[in-house]
Amino acid sequence: MAQQVSFLLYGAYGYTGRLVVERLVSLGLRPILAGRNRARVEAVAREFGLPFTAFEITDSTAMDAALKDVPLVLNCAGPFRNTFTPFADSCIRTATHYLDVTGEIDVFHRAAARHCEFINAGIMVMPGVGFDIVPSDYLACYVKTRLPSADRLVLAFGKVDSVSRGTAATVLDQLGRPGLVRREGKIAEVSTAWRQRSFDFGNGPELSITAPLADVFSAYYTTGIPDIECYVALPCRVSGWALKIAHRFIRPQWFRGLLRRRLQKQDKAGPDAHQRAVGNSVIFAEASSREGQRVQAIMRGPEPYTMTALVAAAAVQCTLDGKARPGFQTPSPTFGAALISAVEDFEVEDLE
Ligand SMILES: NC(=O)c1ccc[n+]([C@@H]2O[C@H](COP(=O)([O-])OP(=O)(O)OC[C@H]3O[C@@H](n4cnc5c(N)ncnc54)[C@H](OP(=O)(O)O)[C@@H]3O)[C@@H](O)[C@H]2O)c1
Q1: Is 163 exposed, middle or buried (0-12, 13-18, 19+ CB in 10 A)?
Q2: Which end of the chain is more exposed for a tag (fewer CB within 10 A), N or C?
Q3: pLDDT for res 177
Q4: In this predicted structure, which of 94-98, 194-198, 240-244, 321-325 has the lowest mean pLDDT?
Q5: Torsion sign over Cα 36, 12, 50, 337
Q6: Cβ–Cβ contacts within 10 Å for residue 137, how many?
Q7: Residue identifier of the C-alpha nearest atom 32 of ligand 1
Q8: CB atoms within 10 A of CB 156
Q9: Is 343 strand, coil or helix?
Q10: Which residue's alpha carbon is nearest to atom 35 within ligand 1?
Q11: What is the largest CA-CA distance in the chain?
């Protein structure tokens, strides 16, 4: 029987927001849909027979009014660099739990810095309940459990076949920023493609480079491991050195403008149903210790946007079921395997 639980989903008419709405409805949940464009929210709400509201994130009065009677908001409107803080402020004022699907490391940083404020308000703030970071957070926790003495963690993400316009715009926003790794528990700036390493994601060795992914920040909270590097597989046969040189010579502002204009012309909002059905995702994790011990595992799962809808909806369900913990939280320590269990075709294999 359908559950009549009310919570807010902001960014409902975006590519990802809409996928999450579909999943939530299939679970019998009835979110109040929201976004800044009334006509576009209303269209999605009518399609699914759901209540809706519209407000700008700059209108704190309207945001407070929308949040004050719900226990939870799931924010799917990114770049989250722009939307996180207004929501965090309003969630504190209205005692509302907060989830989002960001993969932006800055947002995690900002959320963690306000941990005490969230505790005082009695709310949980958990960014990243999508493809990044739910499966990688689970995998980090998994290898740490296999090697409790680990003091070094490597996470590597296989190629993603197709990304949404919103993801591309968010990545563009980050272009030209320094690389980041974690050293002795602290975030350290490094150059672009600082380290290169090959990983076998299932099709032989693929050159990958270090990248400032959210897990550099979050995996420390999840595992306590002080040294963390994240890698992404290069999309084509470009060497890491070529990338370093290109990064040096392309003026990021100019380059971003050009790419943004190209992006606006792209008619597809994101991978279509067929691409989502045939796509997959692969993440590799390695934990090692100073004593020379090492464990490795690989996770295979569905296409990233499909995964995002599944795990974000599971995070909503867990929060509504009373499993939230006040403060800035990461998924695995809070919800255990509950989020990843919502993904049927998900497997973890021990390599070493
Ligand atoms: N971590 C992960 O694994 C993961 C997975 C999926 C998506 N994401 C992230 O989620 C975000 C959305 O992706 P998408 O594919 O859904 O993009 P999209 O189709 O472009 O949708 C973006 C949505 O956010 C809204 N929005 C953006 N800025 C806003 C603002 N300042 N105020 C109010 N609403 C705003 C947009 O509304 P308007 O159309 O009115 O601007 C739209 O509804 C991206 O940042 C993406 O990187 C992360």
Answers
A1: middle
A2: N
A3: 82
A4: 240-244
A5: negative
A6: 29
A7: 57
A8: 27
A9: coil
A10: 77
A11: 60
Using CA atoms, how far residue 180 sits from 16, 171, 191, in Å, is 27, 15, 8
User: How confident is residue 175, by pLDDT bands cut at 50, 70 and 90?
Assistant: confident
Query: Which fold would CATH assign to domain 8-129+306-345?
Result: Rossmann fold (3.40.50)
Which of 350, 233, 230, 242 lies closest to 282 in space, CA to CA? 233
What confidence tens digit (pLDDT) does each residue in 214-260 have?
999 999 999 999 999 999 998 765 665 666 666 665 556 666 676 66
Half-sphere exposure of 94 (CA within 13 A, CB side): 24
Q: Is the CB of 75 under 6 A from ligand 1?
A: no
Q: Of 208, 280, 213, 270, whose CA–CA distance to 240 is shortest?
A: 208
CATH class of 134-305: alpha beta
For the chain, first and last CA: distance in Å?
45
Residue 179: CB within 6 Å of ligand 1? no
Is the minimum distance from the CB of 270 to ligand 1 under 6 angstroms? yes
For the chain, give every residue range classified as CATH 3.40.50.720.
Answer: 8-129+306-345
Where in 86-123 does DSSP place strands (E)?
A: 97-100
Minimum-distance ligand 1 atom for the alpha carbon of 270: 15
Mean pLDDT of 335-343: 97
Beta-carbon contacts of residue 63 (< 8 Å; ≥ 6 apart): 55, 57, 86, 87, 90
Q: Does 79 contact ligand 1 (Cβ within 6 A)?
A: yes
Residue range(s) of every CATH 3.30.360.10 domain in the chain: 134-305
Contacts of 350 (CB under 8 A, 6+ apart): 146, 295, 296, 297
